[in-house]
Amino acid sequence: MFELYSGTVYVRIGKVFRAMPDLLSAIESLRQTRGPYSQDLCLCTAKPYMACHKLGYAQKSAEMEEKMIYLDNAATTKTAPEVVEAMLPYFSENYGNPSAIYSLGSAAKKAVNEARRNIAAVIGAKQEEIYFTAGGSEADNWALKAAAEAYAGKGRHIITSKVEHHAVLHTCRYLEKNGYEVTYLNVDRDGIVDLEELKGAIRPDTILISVMFANNEIGTVEPVREIGAIARERGILFHTDAVQAFGQIPIDVEEMKIDMLSASAHKLNGPKGTGMLYIRSGLKVRSLIHGGAQERNRRAGTENVPGIVGFGAAAKRALGMMAEKSGKECELRDYLIQRIEAEIPYCRLNGHRRTRLPGNVSFSFQFIEGESLLIMLDMKGICASSGSACTSGSLDPSHVLLAIGLKHEEAHGSLRLSLSEENTKEELDTVVDQLKQIVSRLREMSPLYEDFVKAQKQ
Question: Does residue 330 have an active-site annotation?
Fold first, then answer.
């Protein structure tokens, strides 16, 4: 086992040691070193008391080259074949600019509007309330920054939660540097916002509440309907980041009193680089990107027609299969949770047991580190992710896991498995069997686990 820290990390390839500036560089070096022959690869730190523990990062042999098991659908999804088919004509046949007045441009504009209708139908919105963006992060930035600017005359106080996506949290930090005050709500051990705390945080100068629909790491679904009712009663705008929930679970912006909602195509088998912001009719939310008159003068830039068409096709597909897909994913999710809890000791399910996204499974395993777990799962052909932000370039543990009360060492031992309707029980059986072996092996290399076992015997 190796520690997570910012010092030098050494990679051993056979008998040769190479110094790397940090852990991520070392891991990448291991990945690039893979070749056709089995090699003895491991990581160690420069700390003198740390042994150079072999990770078992052996090369994939011919018998290990099996079908990949993809369990990282919360990160991105495979673009559905019918979505790709819908997009293709708009690259080289119907390639007109939607703003042009000739027929080629009109055909593109018609396709964009059809996509807008399909997307609006998923959330019970009007077609004209959907504005296309380059993704969920842009939509979150637009909602917060534009609303803050437009309603600054009323107040400069914003409320959000501690478990939001960084697209919201970092935007809030930006607004704080520009004269706004932000209240960050606590969550309980399941990741759910306390409605009484929310009510208590509201001030006369509160202009916006932004709470995500469902958490990207632990899958917990927030009480959005109740939050919307509180915000509407107090005359406060309500924005929700629904990137993980859009097309996965039912959403009705009118019933839930949502004023703004962010979504992204690639989370529901659509293309990357395309998102949208729902803005309720009548809101005076201003532009984030200035320039041309696209998106009814609210979002400048020539529309990404193939991406938008793909988003529309993915949204129509998701709406049509939502009930069946959700039912299957819930069954697989619960089966996976049951097996892990029954067969791997010293683990903790993260997020609410029932009020969670259909395909989300998040666990923390004591006495191991998620990065080691991910590498070894990858060598078995299993794609997953860790709750630790290390996977995105930071050695800090996940802010979400810390917010629900996990200790740093517990947060570092996290694993997120996000399913799709294409996964099977047989695949999940393979995953659990491999996971049991890997967790056991990592614990055998862990000084913390060794001390724990000794203490238990005393």
Answer: no
